[in-house]
Amino acid sequence: MKDFYELIKEKVRDEKKYELVLIDESYDEKAFGNFLLLYKFNYTKGLIRFINDRGQLFVEIKTKKDWEDIFENLDKKVEGIELNKEKIDEVFTQLDLYLTDKRVL
Fold first, then answer.
1. Contact predicate 23/38, CB 8 Å
2. Of the candidates 53, 42, 69, which has an alpha carbon nearest to the alpha carbon of residue 5?
3. Which one, of 55, 58, 66, 62, lies nearest residue 39 by Cα?
4. How far apart, in Å, are the Cα atoms of 34 and each of 5, 93, 100?
5. Domain segments of the chain as ranges
6. What pLDDT is recorded for position 17?
């Protein structure tokens, strides 16, 4: 899962439109490769976090007071296919749709 962790960080760096600033991260190889990447939107007070918990990826956004899991569980979206570069693109396509719909982008 470390590769997936690094792919998310790389994609965020490459996608300038998100204007995300990394404010916290953790990776635990001993715990199924669990990780947390917490970013702040540069142009709002909103936060976004990518969480891998036992092989399930969650993407959550906090814009006002509560965290909202925007995909519920991305493993359902990718139908159990191994997470890879193509799936990262799919995750960010879904993220774009969500942020545009909520008028965050």
1. yes
2. 53
3. 62
4. 9, 23, 29
5. 2-101
6. 81
Strand partners, 72: none
pTM over 0.85: no
As a whole number of angstroms, the distance between CA 21 and CA 66 comes to 20
pLDDT value at residue 74? 53
Give the per-residue SS3 of the chain. Answer: CHHHHHHHHHHHHHCHHHCEEEEEEEEECCCCCEEEEEEEECCCCCEEEEEEECCEEEEEEECCCCEEECCCCHHHHHCCCCCCHHHHHHHHHHHHHHHHHCCCC
Q: Which of 70, 37, 64 minimizes the C-alpha distance to 53?
A: 37
pLDDT in tens, the chain (105 residues): 557 888 899 989 888 888 899 999 999 888 777 899 999 988 777 899 998 887 778 888 887 778 888 776 455 554 444 566 667 888 888 888 888 877 665
